[in-house]
């Protein structure tokens, strides 16, 4: 396997600004548990091992139940997710795998029944951010767990 560049070292100012943007999402109108679920699901879809590892650990630190994390890949069939969480997951999926003709009205309407305009806007930025992180970490094959100590993820005790 070809050694890839370290994009953080190569573009430190861009990384810093994007990290600042991502950190702003912590104060968004979307609750932490929904942000965790969305980040995990988008990372599953995009095949980003680094982000999947990171967000599973964060979710566990935040108190998320292990079974719900396992059920995320099949959230439509699972009974463990509330309507608001289901709407957020549907929004995350449709924005992660944009259909050829855009977001279908039925998905938009379903999401609008669960989120205010501000919340939907903030949720969209959350999905945008995780997809961007996924793309960078997939492109450069960032090793899962390689930043655990720096991000305090060693506290998850999931080594």
TrEMBL record:
GO molecular function per UniProt? peroxiredoxin activity
Asked if the keyword Oxidoreductase belongs to this entry, the reply reads yes
Looking up Pfam families in the UniProt record yields: CMD (PF02627)
Q: Which domain of life does the UniProt lineage start with?
A: Bacteria
Keywords on record: Oxidoreductase, Peroxidase
Q: Which residues form the Carboxymuconolactone decarboxylase-like domain?
A: 12-93
What the entry lists under NCBIfam families is as follows: ahpD_dom
Q: Identify this protein by name.
A: Alkylhydroperoxidase
């Amino acid at each position: 396997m070809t050694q890839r560049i370290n994009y953080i070292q190569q573009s430190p100012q861009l990384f810093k600004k994007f990290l600042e943007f991502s950190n702003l999402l912590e104060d968004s109108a979307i609750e932490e548990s929904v942000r965790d679920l969305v980040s995990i699901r988008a990372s599953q879809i995009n095949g980003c091992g680094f982000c999947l590892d990171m967000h599973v650990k964060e979710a566990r630190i935040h108190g998320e139940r292990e079974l719900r994390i396992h059920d995320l890949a099949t959230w439509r069939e699972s009974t463990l997710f509330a309507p608001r969480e289901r709407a957020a997951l549907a929004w995350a999926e449709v924005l992660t795998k944009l259909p050829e003709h855009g977001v279908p009205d039925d998905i938009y309407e379903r999401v609008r029944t669960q989120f205010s305009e501000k919340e939907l806007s903030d949720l969209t930025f959350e999905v945008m951010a995780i997809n961007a992180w996924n793309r960078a970490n997939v492109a450069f094959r960032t090793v899962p767990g390689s930043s655990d100590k720096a991000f305090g993820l060693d506290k998850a005790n999931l080594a």
